[in-house]
Amino acid sequence: MSKKLFFFSALLFGMTVALVPACNGDKCPETCGFGICLEDGACDCDPGYEYDTDGICNVLIQSKFAGIYTASENCVTGPYLVEIVTNADVTKVGIKSFWKLFQNQVIATVDGTTLTIARQEPDNDNFFVEGSGTLSTNASGKKVISLNYTVKDEDPMDPSTTTCATTYTEN
């Protein structure tokens, strides 16, 4: 067999193996939506997505958090409204009116029912925020986010740190 024919055969075999679906037989759904099918027939969702009731990766995790909430916390007097909005990055949400102070959105990463606020300076004014929280549902069926965070004023002349516990309850 010539070298050209051998390499062509090897290349053709490699392409055939690469194009064979990763799933076995009829275990796979017709599509996994935003995910891939594993050998056992289950879908493995892409970041930012989770299963719908049929086991297909069609639910944007960020959509579970989106909405208008009443915030009650130990750091700010009186309840106030916040809005959680979806982000172009499907693994993130924006929180408007965070701490009843920030003008720009605080960006949080979502994963399942967890919300994580990486250290950031939303308004470029030496106030940094970071924290985390979890999403649940109360007895009335409303979404509730329990959030703990810190705000650091890193003004070199007068630095301070405030630690807050907040509950966001869906309106």
Runs with pLDDT <50, length 5+?
10-25
Using the CA coordinates, give the radius of gyration.
Answer: 24 Å
The proportion of residues in beta strands is over 45%
Please identify the top-level CATH class of the largest domain.
Mainly Beta
Number of strands: 12
Number of domains: 2
Structural class: mainly beta
Coarse shape: elongated
Description:
This protein has 171 residues and is mainly β. It folds into two domains: 20-60; 66-170, Lipocalin (Beta Barrel), CATH 2.40.128. It has helices at residues 3-19, 61-65, and strands at 35-37, 43-45, 49-51, 57-60, 67-73, 80-86, 92-96, 106-111, 114-120, 127-137, 143-153, 160-170. The strands form three sheets. An eight-stranded antiparallel β-barrel has the order 5-6-7-8-9-10-11-12. It has a two-stranded antiparallel ribbon with strand order 1-2. Strands 3-4 form a two-stranded antiparallel sheet. Strand 1 (35-37) and strand 2 form a beta hairpin. Mean pLDDT is 87; it is low at 10-25.
Quick structural gist:
By secondary structure, the protein is mostly beta strands. It contains two helices and twelve strands; from the N terminus they run αββββαββββββββ.
